[in-house]
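hey so u asked for the seq, here:
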Amino acid sequence: DGIDLLELWRTLLKYKHLILISAFSAALIAAGVSLLMPNIYRAEVLLVPVKADDAKGGGLASALGGLGGLASMAGISLGGGGSAEENLAVLQSRDFLWKFVQAKKLMPILFEDAWDEQQKKWEEPDPKKQPGQLDAHRLFVKGILSVEKDKKTDLVTVAVEMKDAALAAEIANSLVEQLNFYLAQETISRSERNLQYLNEELMRTQIEEMRKILFELIATEQKKVMLANTQKEYAFKVLDKAVEPDKKIKPKRSLIVILAAIIAGLMAILYAFIKEDIARRRESK
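ran it, structure tokens below
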């Protein structure tokens, strides 16, 4: 009915060889498996979001005063490249990552097990069974790309984890560069549509006060287009570029071996207690 510590200790001594052999065998197996696992390297880029006032050349929206409300009614945004959260969401979006993978021709690298390097084609001839856009996005978001934003400092860390250290650094830097270009092109396209609308309104409007407001809005959109065309670091400024990492981030082989030995040892101890309890019950009957 109670716990006899001395009896437990005797059980451990009785099955000590089983426990030690189980732990040692599990450690050996874990060591062998961990050696077969490829090294994964992590390359990081440190960024800071470009402030909206900086992107607009010193607070253009505040200088326009009450025009912001009119611009909103017309469906025109006076903002720069969007908030940092929105831009980071674009970085992890399916559309952006797929365009990036296609531009860099990364599919054979990401899915090397399904790619025949000698024949330069997919091993599976059926296009429906070949890796596609959704597969690439899932692999990037869940296994390769990670984004962290410090709420206190607003610093953003974009990290890429891959087996090839040099490639991880290259992709991390290219992602940020491509993101800035992508967001700038989006701003240019949006501003060009706004300019077309504003110019049409200007031609239809004869009221002098309204024409003055439209001229101001047109100037705003033109400045946004100019900044998007000339500012290379449009949404994020790179503080520290990614370099080729010299140390792997995983697998942590020593930790794997230790955990495997501990788990195997605990399972052996549990087995010993159960077996001894069954034997004791049979003797009592």
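The first strand starts at residue 41 and ends at 49. The radius of gyration is 31 Å.
lmk if thats what u needed
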